[in-house]
Amino acid sequence: MKIICIGRNYSEHAKELGNAIPDKPVIFMKPDTAVLKGNDFYIPEFSNDVHYELEIVVKISKGGKYIQKETAHKHYEEIGLGIDFTARDLQSDLKSKGLPWELAKGFDGSAVVGNFFKKENYNLESLNFSLLKNKDKVQDGNSKDMIFSIDDIITFVSQYFTLRVGDLIFTGTPEGVGKVSENDVLEAYLENEKVLDVRIM
C-alpha cells in the first residue's frame, strides 16, 4: 500500500502558505509506516511546529495505469477523512534549500486515516468536512473548492504510478491549518458525522 498526497489543492490554502496556485497536481508520498496506529499522536522530537491538515482520503479499489478521466470513478468505491501531519519548521527549511519534503511529511504516525464509507452515500462534488481543535472549528472544507477533483487526481497520478488495490490518496487540505500542542484533541467530521478523533501527546 502506498500513500499518495496532493499538495496545494485548495487555492485559499496555497495562499495562506504563500504558495502559487498550481496548474498541475503537486504530488508527494508517505510510506505505509506513516499510518498512525491508534488515536494518540506523539509530537516528534525533531519538530517544534507540527501542523494538522485535514483531507478527504480515497481508497483505491481497482488498480490501473494510464486511467482515463471518464473511467476514473470506477477505481474507488470508498472515501473517508485523514489528517496529514506536517513538521512545518522542517518543511520550510527543506523547501528553502530546494530539497524534497519527505522528512517533514512522511515520518512515523504522520498519516491519520479514519474509517471509510461508501461513496454513493455522498455527493462527492459538494462534500462538506471539518476539523475541530479542542471543540473550536479550525478547518471547514468542501470538495467543490478543490482545484483538481478526485477523478482528475486519479487520472494524473496513474500516468506516473501504477495504482493498486488498497492505495490511499490524500486529496489536499483547505485553509485553516495550524499548530498542534500537547493535550490538544482533534475531531474530524464528514458532513455532520464525527469520523475520527486524535489526541496530541
TrEMBL record:
Source taxon at top rank: Bacteria
Q: Which residues form a coiled coil?
A: none
What InterPro entries does the entry give?
Fumarylacetoacetase-like_C, Fumarylacetoacetase_C_sf
Q: Does the keyword Metal-binding apply?
A: yes
Q: Which residues form the Fumarylacetoacetase-like C-terminal domain?
A: 2-191
Is this entry keyworded S-adenosyl-L-methionine?
Answer: no
Name this protein carries in UniProt: Fumarylacetoacetate hydrolase family protein
Q: What is the lineage of its organism?
A: Bacteria, Pseudomonadati, Bacteroidota, Flavobacteriia, Flavobacteriales
